Amino acid sequence: MKHVHLDAVPWAEWTSPGGKFHGFGQQVSEALGAVTNANLAAGGHPFDLEIGRLPPGKSGCPFHAHSAQWECYWIRSGRGVMRHGSERREVKAGDLALHPPGSSHQLINTGDTDLTYYLVADNPLTEVWRYPDSNKWGFRPGGGIFLRQEVDYHFGEEDSPESRQTPSPRPAPPETPARFARMDDIPWDHRRSPKGRYDNRRRDLSLALGGIRNAGVPAGGHPFDLQIRRAAPGTLLCPYHSHVTQWELFVFLDGRGTVRTPEGNRAVGPGDVVLHPPGCPHQTIVAADSELECLIIADNPPADVFHYPDSNKWGLLTPGKFFRMTEVDYFDGEE
User: Is 214-323 the same fold as 2-179?
Assistant: First the structure.
């Protein structure tokens, strides 16, 4: 388990030379050990969480679209406008906006107070992003920014006049639509175990934004899954368990509780953030006199196995079955 309190995460400030773009951000995933702009193989996490703040009249970045990266905004306070494609949409506290690859977007604070938001993004290994307002492009890895100049496919490859011809400009890439939802419009799904030890409600934010439960991007899901959980006093959020491949990040929003891991128990409350990488058993226990509310962010691996040490159970993401193991010989049933 990795833990940090938001009070301990510094605010980074950025501004453009002319001051049009100005913002602040808490890089929560970096505070939890992630390498900046790196995927898992390079020391990053499968998704990143940033808490952002925009002063009145400012935007944090130019209008842009990603070729591979997904971004999801949850507006926490203030009012603004989300540019997306050729449209503009007013947003306020409680609004959600999902931008898949190819969806150009920009968040602008149009209110008279700071606009704050949570931003979740995945970490693709390589990608290209474009800035339609200025016809700039950028790429990763490398991080270079450049202006696009159309050239022939064989330009510079052969020493002939034809290889230096400039073709006609190509049309802009097709626009991918953004997806929006309002937190108050997302129903609570109430789940209670037969004896009531586990009793909580959840709002599936990713499903409200068009995702498919337990499905990766090729199957119609998102690269990360967001949900709000609210658990009753004295209950458990879920059994003590670990994942073989899935990562889970808990941002505690309200109430009090305890996180149990092999390292011991840790008290948590508003502002605490806990990351459980694969292989880390964990459980959240709600205080006896307080509800507990948290944001849970998880990636969507195509396959996963769960282990429940207290009951010696195992589970499979697909087909969603739970079982206990019976040890057999390696060649059992093969001959």
Answer: yes
CATH code given to domain 2-179:
2.60.120.10
pTM exceeds cut of 0.90: yes
Domain boundaries, the chain: 2-179, 214-323
- Residue 291 burial (CB count, 10 A): 18
Run of H or E residues at 58: none
DSSP 64: B
Nearest to 16 by CA among 71, 80, 62: 62
For residue 181, the one-letter residue type is A
Q: Which superfamily does CATH assign the domain made up of 214-323 to?
A: Jelly Rolls (2.60.120.10)
Closest CA to 251 of 32, 46, 55: 32
> What percent helix, strand, coil does the chain show, rounded to 5?
5, 45, 50
Question: If we measure between CA atoms, which residue out of 321, 250, 226, 244 comes closest to residue 281?
Answer: 244
Q: Which of 97, 57, 52, 91 is nearest to 74 (CA)?
A: 97
Per-residue pLDDT of the chain (335 residues; tens, 9 = 90+): 999 999 999 999 999 999 999 999 999 999 999 998 888 888 999 999 999 999 999 999 999 999 999 999 999 999 999 999 999 999 999 999 999 999 999 999 999 999 999 999 998 889 999 999 998 999 988 778 998 777 777 777 776 655 556 656 667 778 899 999 999 999 999 999 999 999 999 999 999 999 998 888 888 899 999 999 999 999 999 999 999 999 999 999 999 999 999 999 999 999 999 999 999 999 999 999 999 999 999 998 888 999 999 999 999 988 889 999 999 999 998 98
CA atoms of 178 and 224, how far apart (whole Å): 16
What is the SS3 assignment for 320? coil
